[in-house]
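Q&A log
Question type: sequence-to-structure
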Amino acid sequence: MFNPKRILVLAPHTDDGELGCGGSITHFCAAGSEVFYAAFCLCAKSLPAGLPENTLAAECKEATGILGINPDNLILFDYEVRELPASRQKILEELLQLNKQIQPDLVFLPAASDVHQDHQVIHQEGMRAFKNITFAGYELPWNNYSFKTNFFMQLTQEEIDKKIEALKAYRSQQHRNYMQPEFTRSLATVRGVQANAAFAEAFELYKWIA
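Response status: OK
Response body:
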């Protein structure tokens, strides 16, 4: 069994980590792993009109807390949404510093096939910063034109329910179709069938060090 002691989740935007691996975060937190979560964009420009600029930061704090992440382990940067490519070198330096400070055993990051420009930067620079660590890409189907399901985390009903509860904390984002509980549960059911479990999350595994 793989029992990482320290896990780092890299989220280009607040909510990406919960969407891609919220069930796995819950699983590892309950198992005693120390989970860290770093979000790079607070996405004020993407908020519905009239909401405070710190809305997504507050929602991210609530959501990650629901999953079991210690508030002290939440790291929020404030890069401009859709402009991460212009800050590639600075982001790499941030990631190298996170590697040095946290020394994770496992890193979750966006998948290689993710077409969003911000997600591509976090994936590519993450591969450079954490090249000597086990790391895997999480699934965001609306951004993935292809996805290699070669690593599955089997999940319980309780863990999927916790993921759905965390996503509901993003009240400003509930208009998005991929935030709906039916979508989350359906995808987890499909991945569960593939992993011989009731539910699962799928990942692309890039490097395994045990």
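Response note: The two ends are 10 Å apart (CA to CA).
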